[in-house]
């Protein structure tokens, strides 16, 4: 079939191909030049989600392959789900209507949300029921996504189609990057050639636990996808929305591109690269320049073949084509590769003792464990204090890949096997990190925004459903406790004790009742002599009363430090001496 004919056929095929009109953001290039007779289907763009609207989940029939019917789990009739585009600081609201015959939840991957809005399997939305998910978007601008997260049904529902982009924008981060028609999200998912046109999810005993792999790639639900591009700079937002497949991303001509962002938004600067690994749940944004290509040429984004240690009964590392870019015009994006973005402040681990997570794979079901544990929805595996820096050491004691993921916060990768010289797609903010066979990775993390129960798990969705997942609870910051019951008359910050101290000291303060304040927010932080804020030990509403907290100065050098306590418009400060 000639391509033009293919396009016309595909357009007749209906809904999936309609390009969202409300926003030019992701609309396709005009495609009136057909020069060569290349095969394939024009890249599709899911419709844009209207904030505040319904997300109705239902088994639906759509045309993924031209003129053939596929039963998918669609959202508002669309596979992949509609793209959420929301400005940082706005409140996101979606009413999830579950018209499936089984339980589900919606999880906003990489996004910080209150525990009950996080799509935790403890908060299921039953068939025929609905749930309003609503929360202010606190994350940096970046490419996030949403997907199903019900207990033991995540892999199946995602494979069937329950996933979509969640893109956070921020007008204050303007670096003249390519935008509009030149800013293209690419959701990469592998399916099975032998099953075309069906999305059968029928894993055998082994693949049900090792991982369900496909051998043909869909991009935004488009098989054999191509995109017509101009001879200019493009921004591509890559999301690995696959169940288990780990891609080694590169171009067919091995061209160089710039990696500009990791899971949690822009890096501190663009980094040139020719390839990178992209594991399930990860996102990487790249800038690709087609300006030296000639009209009529094309280049393919693909996953390179690689060898995968271990003797698993399935094939990671096969060569796969992802999407072909056909250079067809001279339109210009006007975008640039900036020299730098905003600097990222890297955490200092000091002498923090790591929390250890050891990943193992046994011979009997359930096979995949973390610290010897299989997921138990009712068990809280550890508690982590809000606002304090943590160091996690994740040890892969298996011959398989494990893309490990935390909910609610973004990590900073500290090292791989102790090596702090990290690949560009590791450096920056990350919520999903690939652990290669036998490797350990250390990450640093702070849970700043919400208290409550969250998940830490492998994002190979079969591993996750097999129980490679733990619950943790973000609790009050360490050491802050109410002492005594009487309400003080005055706002006071008492001298710390001991003082001088090493390495920790206690500080008492009094919060009086004060009806003039509309907010009872109390913020307690410590500063160094240069006025640099080192830690926020409390940032919360407190009842009037007497409190005490403990500050551990850890690895900080000897010297003078200051504590600052604010309550409404009242402020107190204190000088403390660390002597080692
Ligand atoms: Cu993207 Cu808990 O998952
Ligand atoms: Cu997540
Ligand atoms: Cu895993």
Commentary on this structure:
This protein is mainly beta and 580 residues long. Among the domains are: 354-475, Immunoglobulin-like (Sandwich); 481-578, Macroglobulin (MG2) domain (Immunoglobulin-like), CATH 2.60.40. 4% of the residues lie in helices and 41% in strands. The chain has four helices and 39 strands. The strands form eight sheets. It has a seven-stranded mixed sheet with strand order 12-11-10-14-19-16-17, with no helix packed on it. Strands 1-13-21-20-15-18 form a six-stranded mixed sheet, with helices on one face. A five-stranded mixed sheet has the order 23-22-25-29-27, with no helix packed on it. A hairpin with a 2-residue loop joins β16 (257-262) and β17 (265-273). The longest helix has 10 residues, at 3-12. It is globular, with a radius of gyration of 25 Å. 44% of the residues are buried. The model is unreliable at 1-36 (pLDDT under 50). The structure holds CU-O-CU linkage (C2O) and copper (II) ion (CU) (2 copies). CU-O-CU linkage (C2O) is lined by residues 107, 109, 147, 149, 281, 405, 407, 455, 457, 459.
